[in-house]
From TrEMBL:
The keyword Metal-binding applies. GO terms for molecular function: zinc ion binding. This is Uncharacterized protein. Residues 16-56 form the RING-type domain. It comes from the Eukaryota. Residues 201-267 form a coiled coil. The lineage of its organism: Eukaryota, Metazoa, Spiralia, Lophotrochozoa, Mollusca. It holds the Pfam family ANCHR-like_BBOX. InterPro entries: TRIM45/56/19-like, Znf_B-box, Znf_C3HC4_RING-type, Znf_RING, Znf_RING/FYVE/PHD, Znf_RING_CS. CDD domains: Bbox1. Keywords: Coiled coil, Metal-binding, Zinc, Zinc-finger.
């Protein structure tokens, strides 16, 4: 596991949530959370249900686990978070002591090509040597990890000394001119890496916009459910109060009726609450996936090289499409979210009122609702629904 040499980026984005150190070989989970490869293997070894330790989302489905010989194959099949790896390296460089690598005096600048930090005289000399005269120096005090990561040169993964200047859509790889003439000669539509990166940047920006929009809609839906639950709680409190008032007037002859009404009311409340909470959990789960993928896309857009941006775009493209399709199909079925009202059979009310009035045990007071004078009684039907059915006086 990586050891943090100093502070990490904002919100500890570069720290693994398992080992709490800088990421080493970060892996991108299906839920868009990131863990060190070694931490992920250790987690899966002790938690074979293969759920993310942060959101309990599935890391691998049952079919995928049955096809592999062990967790190593599952973990290695997950995409590398190359944008996070670059950000971690930049964080490590900036968190080290600001001492010139040449003369050991206080460093004030950093080479964006070789990541060496230097004092002013050594930095000036660095740009005059024939080997390093093309290197660009920048102010160390104002440099951020994202800026440093985005400024790194793109080198070919095959010819490491050659810069990546082309992009092969057929193989989805950033390549140098030597690779283009040797291995990609038959590949059509070779484009400039900068042009491919611009398209990836635009696609990632659209991903961020779409994910943010869906995230906000889910948040609004969750807030609406919470308001509905609060309203239900208020109605139930009023219902219980009315039941108490009514049953107190019925004396001992209706104590058993009062007990049953309360129990049925609480059961109805539990059903409404369970329904709302179940929908809320689903929405929160999808919102978490939207947020995680949006943060990955946003972070990559703000602090990644062209090559890394293309790699991350390829890793996220289909997954984000699937997430957006799923979120587009989500909606709150308000018909399934029960509302609560109270009623009592009118004939039964009339009969009970007459019997109790004859005994002097009930006094019915009219209540004004609009222009009508009504009497309200509380009752719950056999389906667990509380209904308010005013009786015209």
């Amino acid at each position: 596991m990586a050891t943090a040499a100093g502070g990490s980026s904002a919100d500890n984005d570069t720290e693994c949530s398992v080992c709490h150190e800088l990421f080493k070989n970060p892996k991108l989970l299906p839920c868009a959370h990131v863990l060190c490869r070694h931490c992920l293997l250790s987690w899966l070894a002790s938690n074979p249900e293969a759920l993310c330790p942060l959101c309990r989302g599935a890391i691998a489905d049952t079919k995928e686990k049955s096809r592999t010989k062990g967790w190593k194959e599952v973990v290695d099949a997950l995409p590398d978070d190359v944008a996070m790896a670059a950000l971690v390296e930049s964080t490590r460089v900036l968190s080290q002591d600001h001492v010139c690598v040449v003369c050991q005096s206080a460093a004030v600048s950093i080479c964006l090509t070789c990541n060496d930090i230097m004092c002013k005289p050594c930095g000036q000399a660095h740009t005059k040597y024939s080997v390093t005269r093309d290197h660009k120096m920048d102010d160390l005090s104002s440099m951020t990890a994202e800026e440093l990561a985005a400024s790194q040169p793109d080198h070919c993964s095959v010819h490491t000394s050659k810069p990546c200047e082309l992009f092969c859509p057929t193989h989805g790889a950033a390549i140098c001119h030597l690779c283009a003439s040797a291995k990609h000669r038959a590949c059509p539509d070779l484009t400039e890496l900068a042009e491919a990166a611009d398209k990836s940047r635009e696609e990632l920006s659209q991903m961020v916009t779409s994910l943010l929009t869906e995230e906000q809609q889910l948040e609004e839906a969750v807030a609406a459910l919470e308001r509905h639950l609060e309203a239900t709680e208020k109605v139930m409190q009023e219902a219980v109060a009315e039941i108490d008032m009514t049953c107190d007037k019925l004396e001992n002859s209706v104590k058993e009726c009062r007990r049953r009404l309360k129990n049925m009311t609480l059961d109805a409340k539990a059903k409404v609450k369970d329904t709302v909470l179940a929908v809320k959990v689903t929405l929160l789960d999808h919102r978490g996936r939207l947020t995680s993928h949006r943060r990955v896309a946003d972070r990559t857009t703000r602090g990644a090289t062209n090559k890394i941006m293309c790699d991350v775009t390829r890793a996220l493209r289909n997954r984000v499409k699937d997430i957006l399709v799923t979120c587009g199909q989500l909606s709150v079925d308000w018909k399934s979210v029960s509302t609560v009202t109270l009623t009592i059979d009118v004939a039964a009310v009339t009969r009970i009122e007459k019997e109790l009035s004859a005994l002097g045990h009930m006094e019915v007071k009219p209540v004004s609702i609009g222009t009508r004078q009504v009497r309200r009684m509380l009752f719950m039907n056999q389906y667990g629904q509380l209904i308010d059915l005013p009786h015209q006086s």
